Amino acid sequence: MRLSGEAETEPTAQANAALRVDIDRETQLNLSGAYAYRKDDPGSAAVAIATDPLLFPGLGTVNDPVTQTLSGAAGLQRQAGPFSALAEINGERQVHGDATLTDGRTVSQDDLDYTRYGARLRGGYSISPVLTPFAEIEYSRRVMDVRPDPAGIDRNAVRYALRLGTAFDRGEKLSGEIALGYVHEDIADATLGDIGGLSVAGALNWSPRRETDVSAGLSTSTTTSGSAGVSGALVYAANLGITHRARADLELNGGLNVEYDDVVGAAEDEITVGGTLGATWWFNRFAGLTGRVSHERTFSDDPAEESSSTNAF
User: Fold this and answer.
1) CA-based Rg of the chain, rounded to a whole angstrom?
2) What distance in Å separates the CA atoms of residue 4 and residue 167, rounded to the nearest whole number?
């Protein structure tokens, strides 16, 4: 139920799965997969051409097309005394739905569809039972389904990153890792600027007291765009979550997230801030009733891109 903001339904869905297989005492196989479903404003080059105000005055879009993202990873991790190593392959597939114009016609957004595949290598050395410094390199390639796109731009890209960091583990009370480095995405089309900058990644799991858990995360990623003159964005995201078991059958939770889109090209940067408060009443160990209220606001130098909404679930 939307309490404020634009009065329309925007369903979202997400599913995650992970599997760990202990091959032997020192070697682990980690498998993961995720699926995400959301709706977003049309943003492909094909839609921009079809609604060009100079060519088709008054023509616009009437729907928020679906974006579906499927991702997965397989990694082999090994510990040999104080040395640790990780080798991972990963991939992502993103597909966008058609946009509907105000005159009833539909426009395919397949020029935004892509497949990304890559690999990650990490090596670490435990200097104590608590601290394990590490170095990590990452390489991936994005292949667009349509290239060049309807605007004549080739948005294929190669991305690489180098990070240095440390993992820490103080048992059930405190664990996590933090890393800093550099990420760069080289776009095939020479008319678009490359995306690059500081890369920050981290995760924290903290239990300050019994029945209370705190989690935090930092991430840096890149996104592509379908707008003329816009390469995409370097996206910095941070989140904080708190869960408290007030009683055996009542769990309280809250969260805060912030995202900054550092856009490369002729577009304005954006900052999105959101917060959530919720509770779960457990009928038994396996089933419960959950309710939550969330608020999200987007800030931009372009007033047309600003938004605010409050939702109850």
Assistant:
1) 22
2) 42
Predicted local confidence at residue 11, as pLDDT: 67
**Could you give the CA distance from residue 23 to residue 9 in angstroms, rounded to a whole number?**
46
Q: Round to whole Å and give the CA distance between 71 and 64.
A: 22
Partnered with residue 264 across adjacent β-strands are 232
Phi, psi angle pair for 46, to nearest 5°: -65, -40
Tokens linked to 183: 């990420």
**What residue type is assigned to position 139 of the chain?**
Y
CB–CB of 196/234 below 8 Å? yes
Specify the pLDDT at position 7: 45
Q: Which residue in 148, 60, 156, 42 sits closest to 99, CA to CA?
A: 42
- CA–CA gap between residue 65 and residue 112 (Å, rounded): 12
> What residues in the chain have per-residue pLDDT under 50?
7-8
194-219: per-residue pLDDT in tens? 999 999 999 999 999 889 999 999 99
Q: How many residues does the chain have?
A: 313
Tokens of 312: 């109850």
pLDDT at 40: 85
Phi, psi values for residue 267, rounded to 5°: -155, 160
Q: Show Cβ contacts of residue 259 under 8 Å, excluding neighbours closer than 6 positions.
A: 235, 236, 237, 238, 271, 272
Query: Which amino acid would we find at residue 226?
Result: G
Q: Encoding tokens for residue 143?
A: 């292949």
pLDDT of residue 3: 53
Query: Given this model, what pLDDT does residue 311 score?
Result: 84
Eight-class DSSP state of 304: G
The phi, psi pair for 66, rounded to 5°, reads -80, 140
Whole-angstrom distance, CA of residue 253 vs CA of residue 251: 7
What pTM, to 2 d.p., does this model score?
A: 0.86
Among residues 199, 195, 200, the alpha carbon closest in space to that of 263 is found at 195
